Amino acid sequence: MVCLGNICRSPLAEGILKSKVDTSKVFVDSAGTGHWHVGDQPDKRSIAVGKKYNIDITNQRGRQFSARDFGNFDLIYVMDNSNRENILALAENDAQKEKVRLILDEIFPGENVDVPDPYFGGDAGFENVFKMLDEACNQIVKQL
Ligand code: 4NP
């Protein structure tokens, strides 16, 4: 699960997907394309909305996406088109590029919808992000 800062959207996506899979069989992680929040705990608003739905993301710490992740993961879900561009720029071949999916394509196929970045907004944005990611993760688990 990849976003820009790895403190708002992708930590929620990681926590939500982990809650829906057998984590002894499916390894789920998240990262940011940016470096600003490496080592940081998720944003307190993401922690709060997760807690509201019984998903604890307090143990997560920010990390930056690395080209090595293409080797370590089968599927790479990005939150928005700019994340996708940044990740695709690091891919070395078509097989790596094919691992990259826009997460809301899972519920709005072909519509190219971004998960809005809630960082500069209010709490309602985080609730909205949670609901979108929850629905998208329901689709993802059906295909695993
Ligand atoms: P995220 O949100 O990509 O969902 O984690 C952001 C968090 C921090 C920043 C940007 C987006 N920032 O510019 O620091």
Automatic annotation (TrEMBL):
Superkingdom, taxonomy of origin: Bacteria
Record CDD domains: LMWPTP
Any Pfam family: LMWPc
Xref: Gene3D superfamilies: 3.40.50.2300
Protein's UniProt keywords contain Hydrolase: yes
Listed name of the protein: protein-tyrosine-phosphatase
InterPro entries according to UniProt: LMW_PTPase (IPR050438), Ptyr_pPase (IPR023485), Ptyr_pPase_sf (IPR036196), Tyr_phospatase_low_mol_wt (IPR017867)
Family membership noted in the UniProt record: Belongs to the low molecular weight phosphotyrosine protein phosphatase family.
EC number: 3.1.3.48
GO molecular function: protein tyrosine phosphatase activity
Residues at the active site: 3 (nucleophile), 9, 117 (proton donor)
Residue stretches making up the Phosphotyrosine protein phosphatase I domain: 2-143
EC class: hydrolase
Organism: Aequorivita lipolytica
